[in-house]
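Lay summary. Proteins are chains of building blocks that fold into shapes, and those shapes determine what they do. In this project we predict the shape from the chain. Here is one chain we studied, written as its sequence of building blocks.
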Amino acid sequence: MAPVVAVVGPTASGKSDVGVAIARLLSARAGTPGEVVNADALQFYRGMDVGTAKITVAERRGVPHHLLDVLDVTQTAEVATFQGWAHDAFDDVTRRGGVPVLVGGSGLYVRAALDDLRFPGKDAEVRARWEAELDRLGPPALHAVLVERDPAAAAAILPSNGRRIVRALEVGEITGAPFAASLPEQTYRRPTVQVGLAVPREELVARIDARVDRMWAAGLVEEVRALETQGLREGRTAGRALGYAQVLDALDGRTTLEEARELTARLTRRFARKQDAWFRRDPRVHWLSAPDGTDPEDLARRALDLLPVASPA
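And here is the predicted shape, written in a compact code that computers can read:
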């Protein structure tokens, strides 16, 4: 079975550029074309480009990318559905003699794509009850409930992510066990090399702040206004995404745009810490030092040195 190369790590660590470099180097070095499979849950959404730092066509440098722009903002991203998409994409790439390069920082989505992972069932009545509590209390207050019931799950979920809070509470009620207990041992479905990009904390904070500034300068507010007309506010995933939710609050007059920008940066820094902690718990991740100024192609070479099939003849 053909291998998968996965590039993981926190937001703003440079995963997209390294994924492209790996795919291109596979073609040049091993004669096997690489194709990128997206595992960033928010980059599934059409029109959510600026606020997700979605890789542009030019930045893809001719490398095929899968699972970008596959949902409307009114649709809900579901990890179990993504799992099927990712497996189909892997099979499609390998049937054509290629190597899938999974790129993303959404930890559970990465595990769903790579591991032999089966998700606990759903209970519509339990889900509806917790969703009603979410509407009544709001995400931060419901997150406090999760902290009491399942501290480990609460530590991995942002207090603003109402959908994931509801799911963790639902699973806990259905199974009677913590959410993490529903995840099996880490077992790859196919040969995989997982590399993580390690950026010094101070540098990562600076990158995140600079990225948020670029998003505002590049027209995030205008993007949110345009997506409003397409139902962004009704989207349970898209409408609550970092940056988008804060701009919507500013447009409603609850904050200023400058406050929204500052809050987006602060929440993104917090999210990056959670991402890093998630991937650090996986002993299979090979961490590559990626401080400012590191050439993505150098990181790609170091990644492929871990992949015997991609080594020079």
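What the prediction tells us: Residues 257-280 form the longest helix (24 residues).
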